[in-house]
Design brief:
The chain has a single domain, classed as Aldolase class I (TIM Barrel), CATH 3.20.20.70. Helices cover about 35% and strands about 20% of the residues. The protein contains ten helices and twelve strands. Strand 8 and strand 9 form a beta hairpin. The longest helix has 21 residues.
Length: about 290
């Protein structure tokens, strides 16, 4: 469920218009409403130590797609899915790189707005460019943005991020983490000031950022974020030997964060080309079929 804390009984009104129709915001929608991720964004401007971007048909995780589509091809695939799937209400861009670091993202969103203005458009990002792109996203009718925030303390962030590229400069270590965290928080403010609903994703790495969880929840909520989604580390890349969180770890983290911001507990950590009803995946072949041909 989204949150078990009675404190948030009235807070959901901030995004109540989404809970019934967006599978990443509402529990009922999670099992009824289809979404489609368009893999048009291959490049990324940061390197997370838990991320390997890949093109393949096998791995079910973020950062993976079976191909990269041009905006025109993405619209063609979206049109075919809309015709065959009446439950499709949401179209998103989730990589496999960072959505805001790729011009194709904005061209795709422009085409979606022109052809299907009633679809809910959303995207996920590391947030480095969210402040600069906030006004453009509003113009393109983007309704929700998910920003992955894994730390508030740059010392902790330096253990999670390898490098950050901003204004053609490569930063590493605490300098990179400090820049990214500052831009993420300012990006949340810029988006929410424009009435774009912000959800926070946080990758839980118990040995590194467990103590950061309440800080992330508090600081992002202060800046207007509406919902938080804590997901388990997938132990790959530089964290390939790191223990991921247990179910108890996840619930402990969510309980600590829930004091500040409502929690979403049903994330599937989807591929960048996922398509279908999230809550039915595993029971249907529709999750990525359009991108496996």
């Amino acid at each position: 469920m989204m949150s078990q804390n009675p404190k948030w009984a009235g807070v959901g009104s901030k995004f109540a218009h989404l809970t019934a129709v967006h599978p990443c915001f509402g529990v009922k929608a999670h099992y009824k409403v289809a979404r489609m991720h368009l893999p048009v964004a291959p490049s990324c401007n940061i390197q997370c130590n838990y991320c390997i971007r890949k093109i393949n048909k096998c791995e079910n995780r973020p950062g993976v797609a079976s191909c990269i589509l041009s905006p025109a091809k993405a619209i063609e695939r979206l049109e075919a899915e809309i015709k065959s799937n009446p439950d499709l209400k949401v179209v998103g861009i989730a990589g496999p790189g960072d959505s805001l670091a790729n011009p194709a993202t904005f061209k795709t969103l422009e085409l979606v707005k022109k052809k299907w203005p009633d679809l809910i458009s959303c995207l996920s990002t590391n947030g480095l460019l969210a402040e600069e792109k906030a006004e453009k996203l509003k113009e393109l009718n983007v309704r929700t943005v998910t920003i992955t925030v894994n730390a508030i303390d740059p010392k902790v962030g330096a253990k999670i991020y390898d490098w950050v590229v901003y204004n053609n400069k490569i930063c590493r270590g605490e300098e990179a983490a400090k820049l990214l965290i500052k831009k993420q928080l300012r990006g949340i403010e810029a988006l929410t000031e424009r009435e774009i609903v912000v959800k926070i994703n946080t990758v839980l790495i118990p040995s590194i950022n467990m103590d950061e969880i309440p800080k992330i929840a508090e600081e992002t909520a202060k800046r207007g974020a509406s919902l938080m989604n804590i997901v388990p580390l997938i132990p790959i890349h530089k964290f390939s030997g790191t223990q991921g969180p247990s179910c108890a770890d996840l619930e402990m983290a969510r309980g600590a964060a829930e004091r500040f911001i409502p929690q979403f507990r049903f994330c599937r950590q989807c591929r960048a080309d996922a398509c279908g009803v999230p809550g039915l995946e595993g029971k249907t072949v529709r999750s990525t079929e359009y991108f496996h041909g």
